[in-house]
Design a protein that fits this description.
This protein has 419 residues and is of the alpha/beta class. It folds into 2 domains: 163 residues, Aspartate Aminotransferase, domain 1; 193 residues, Type I PLP-dependent aspartate aminotransferase-like (Major domain) (Aspartate Aminotransferase, domain 2, 3-Layer(aba) Sandwich), CATH 3.40.640.10. The protein has 13 helices and 12 strands. Strands 1-7-6-5-4-2-3 form a 7-stranded mixed beta sheet, with helices on both faces. Helix 3 crosses helix 9, helix 4 packs parallel to helix 5 and helix 4 packs across helix 8. The radius of gyration is 22 Å and the shape is globular. The relative contact order is 0.15.
Length: 419
């Protein structure tokens, strides 16, 4: 049985897992109570469920309402103690000053668009953004009078400048890109945003803890906390982080006006999941790298879209800006295979579950051919493609599972006389 870790150069392995190892201790310590004097504390803070908050007087209630930009206890729908604690932890991990926790990753993507755009504005979105973000832009932003232009994720500064309009107010990037994994030049996007007076929003879900958007020119960072932070495929939750009060106030106001806060149980589960994220991802990232290198050696594979490998667009930006890698990547197969071949291969896998989302402890596979909308040519277009999320299973067993499927694909093609 092939051990994919035998294919991994030690220096590349260190480069991929270093960030997770560095943050593991920090994740255990931040956002927790610690004993003081003779007072004992629980390791995990309580969830603190509640809706109505009682005050001693109307004056006290009014004073609390004016503190809505801080962790003030006002009303359950405006935030609970466990939500405020999770927000402080996320802001610290992301390198920002304030965070707003919301009910889902999609809510995290759409909240900044609602907060910072108005009728008559123009927004530049990377063509590789998460599909539901694109759907929101096309069906909601346009309906509200916001113009949207999609730009190639690997576009250079001059190409992007040509798309800018006087009314451009926001640039939305996702790096690496959803399904196609292009790593974008975020510092360049930050320079462009600063020059034209726009905000730069970065969906940093893949790179949480490994990439600091604010150190590279971003104003807003988006997280689907559903993924690695919650980590157990049983929670839907998101967060939006900012670095300045100027960006925080409209974001917080919009979250309150739209009722975008998460429940205390989801916050509690996410905070608990964060404690083990470093340990989980050190293992998962290492295994994923081994699986990616093994796939790269297979004749059925046209291209592996893993940011730590030179075959991935923007690999140089990953090497420059990230302190490690996650366990999610894409695979593009040879053009001689059909979508039916890919479907049969996926249906036959035993260890890779078939399902949306990712970031849990289990391995997943999802076909991406035919399921993504693009305005520009995509790197996934050469042949049928899929996305792999590598969990905590043994790498040798995952490779054996994939090998059975790929052998079957090759046999099917040979039987058609196209091998």
């Amino acid at each position: 049985m092939t051990d994919p870790m035998a294919l991994v150069p030690p220096d590349l392995l260190e480069r991929v897992v270093r960030g997770w190892r560095d943050m593991a201790t920090r994740l255990v310590q931040i956002g927790r109570d610690h004993p003081e004097g003779d007072r004992g504390v629980f390791v995990n803070p309580a969830a603190g469920r509640g809706s109505t908050v009682l005050f001693s007087s109307l004056e006290a209630m009014d004073r609390a309402g004016h503190g809505r930009y801080g962790p003030e206890l006002i009303y359950g729908a405006m935030g609970t103690p466990i939500q405020h604690r999770l927000e402080a932890v996320i802001a610290e991990i992301e390198g920002g000053a304030h965070a707003q926790v919301v009910p889902s990753g999609l809510a995290a993507c759409t909240l900044p668009l609602l907060a910072y755009l108005q009728a008559g504005d123009h927004c530049l979105l990377s063509d590789s953004v998460y599909g539901p973000t694109r759907r929101f832009a096309d069906r909601v932003l346009r309906r509200f009078g916001v113009a949207v232009t999609y730009f190639p994720p690997m576009a250079g500064e001059d190409e992007l400048q040509a798309l800018v309009r006087p009314e451009t107010r926001l640039i939305f990037a996702e790096s690496p890109g959803s399904h196609s994994f292009e790593v974008q030049d975020v510092p360049m996007l930050g320079r462009l945003a600063a020059r034209i007076g726009a905000r730069l929003v970065v969906d940093n879900t893949w790179g949480i803890g490994l990439f600091n958007p604010f150190a590279h020119g971003a104003h807003v960072s988006v997280q689907a906390l559903t993924k690695y932070p919650a980590g157990h495929s049983d929670t839907i939750i998101g967060a939006v982080t900012v670095a300045s009060d100027a960006d925080w106030r409209p974001l917080r106001d919009t979250a309150i006006q739209a009722g975008q806060t998460a429940g205390p149980d989801d916050c509690w589960l996410t905070l608990r999941g964060l404690r083990t994220m470093g340990a989980r991802l050190e293992r998962q990232a290492a295994t994923a790298l081994g699986v990616a290198l093994w796939l790269q050696s297979r004749p059925e594979v046209h291209r592996v879209l893993h940011p730590a490998l030179p075959s991935c667009p923007g690999h140089a930006y990953w090497a420059r800006d990230f302190s490690g890698a996650s366990s999610l990547f894409g695979v593009v197969f040879d053009a001689g295979f059909t979508q039916a071949d890919l479907t049969a291969m996926i249906d036959g896998l035993r260890l890779f579950g078939i399902g949306a989302s990712w970031g849990g402890y289990e391995s997943l596979v999802l076909p991406t051919t035919g399921g993504i909308s693009r305005s520009c040519p995509s790197v996934t277009g050469a042949g049928p493609a899929c996305r792999l999320h590598v969990g905590l299973e043994a790498g040798a067993l995952l490779v054996a599972d994939l090998a059975r499927g790929l052998d079957g694909m090759s046999a099917a093609r040979a039987g058609r006389g196209t091998g």
